Amino acid sequence: MSQPAIEFAPTAPKTFVPANTNAANWSQLEPLYQSLITRELKCQRCLEKLILDRSDLDAAAEEAQANLYIAMTCRTDDAAAKKCFLDFVEQVEPQLKRVGFELDQKITNSPHVSKLDANRYGVLLRAVGQEVKLFRAENVALQTQATKLDQSYSEISGAMVVNFDGEEKTLPQMARYLEDSDRAKREASWRAVAERRQQDCVKVHDIYSKLITLRDQMGRNAGFDNFRDFQHQRMHRFDYVPADCGHFHEAIEKHCVPLVREMHKQRAAALGLQTLRPWDLKVDVKGRAPLRPFTNGEDLTAKTSRTYRNMDAGLSQMFDTMLGGGCLDLDSRKGKAPGGYQYQRQASRKPFIFMNAVGLHRDLITMVHEAGHAFHSLLSKEDPILLYRSSPTEFAEVASMSQELLTLPYLSEFFNADDAARAKRELLEGAIAVLPWVAHIDAFQHWVYLNPTHTVKERETKWLELDARFGGLVDWTGLEQFRASLWQRQLHLFGMPFYYIEYGIAQLGALQVWLASLTNEKQAIANYKAGLALGGSKPLPQLFQAAGIQFDFTAPIVEKLMSAVGAQLKQLS
After folding, report:
1. What are phi and psi of 347, to 5 degrees?
2. Residue 341 in contact with residue 372, Cβ under 8 Å?
3. pLDDT per position as a tens digit, 430-469
4. Whole-model pTM?
5. Is residue 213 part of a domain?
């Protein structure tokens, strides 16, 4: 299959950055940044103008990096795309961190900073102050090395293919066989993928070990005993601490894991099996053909557009703005990085959605999930302060996960009535099942970075120990080597350390949005959009409140939500 050309969105008009600036070139960015660093700040308005001009310039640099990242992930086998991205990472990104620190200092040290409106600038100043506190020049080079190691992981993952059914297939393309009613075929496909991953298991372990060492040094350079505590602060987690994550793990273990294990018992009984194997988790228990909601990316786009047209005029209009070209790359193909993402190009303020669609129900879920991120980007795009055009990830994932649930009543574009009910059940079961996986990944990272000198064997042992705590009722007999390295498929561990518990916190928020929609859908969607429109301009609890939900991931809310979802599932039985 030929690879589509990536058309990047045109740059929006600017007030500070000249229109012809090549923001991927440091020689063109440097004089602009230096002019900000040396600018005299005579008054409060001068400081405010500096903040806005910096936002403009940072947005141009961020969009340059976005375009290079998009090109590289869309074509991992393109040497030129890889080189351009790595050149930016090695030559431009370290300079951006350096001048960014100087500008953060300039803002926080300004005698006029105390005159700024706290309601408007409070969140910004808190974030900038944190950056000044944590910045260490010696960490810039270490971060560059970490980014390159993550790129190596993406390259290894993107190159993984298997020969199956007489054809070469990517690993995302293999996922559809796990829904096949032929158990022998499911097993063969699962083993083919597991064995292919196992071929690079040692390489991936090595990459992760190097990342752990680099990151531990970064934390120590900043005065922390470990990378975990450093990273929690670096991620601007002002509203909770690592100990709260441990309480979340316990809440999921107590109130969610038993529900997942009960679902597994019911699944095994329905399939007539004594025990479930890893290839028995996706097949329909009634032997029905797998859900195939669309044929290709074009079909997925058209049906999703009609879905939002039926659901909400505002969401529909925003989705359709992405159909004009340069905003979507949906189909899976060889040489494409794994996973899916939405990337907001901050200068043109146009989102880009990337995924590996192969016609599965899971792909439909990914489509509306990433659309939720795009809605967030579009609803907050008019704020002139760059930081406020995105939000803390705990709330950013509410934007995306809520779409998985809010679209459930509107699946007629993809399914008949029976299949729509089936899709709803699969989605709700998935919403529950993801929570133990989130707790598993997060608890694993806590251990990894609190014990940075651990061996590969100890790493695998810890993973298996946590799997016994958070896993379902799956029989792994004879598959132990695959089970011990299952974490390697989770790309966040490599490129975005500790960015995972957000999915759990956000899932609890999204379930609250969804439950509210069952009583008053119009109001729930209005609240959802109102929360998203704030971007990141308010503290995390206020963003949740604006969306009509609570920022809460303690045991009582977990218990309440699991009970509500369990009741909904019983109605679908």
Report:
1. -80, -50
2. no
3. 999 999 999 999 999 999 999 999 999 999 999 999 999 9
4. 0.88
5. no
